[in-house]
Design goal:
The chain is of the alpha+beta class. It has 3 helices and 3 strands; from the N terminus they run βααββα. The mean pLDDT is about 90.
């Protein structure tokens, strides 16, 4: 059985990455950081596995499906 992916809140992502809030959203807009996914009305989260993939190699990270 596969392990379920945990959703991280914005504050957790900021702590894990040491990015500022404005830098986080600028990097998301530039497609250099994983986009959050909607998890309920008015709530978003980041998949822990995507943050881990970005942390592994932030300079080479590409969104899934990108060439």
């Amino acid at each position: 059985m596969s392990r379920l992916d945990r959703f991280l809140r914005e504050q957790e992502v900021l702590q894990l990455t040491s990015l500022s809030r404005s830098t986080l959203w600028r990097e998301i807009k530039a497609q250099r950081f994983p986009r959050p996914v909607p998890i309920s009305a008015g709530r978003v989260g980041w998949r822990e596995s995507m943050i881990a993939a970005w942390q592994h190699d932030p300079m080479s990270w590409k969104p899934q499906g990108a060439a």
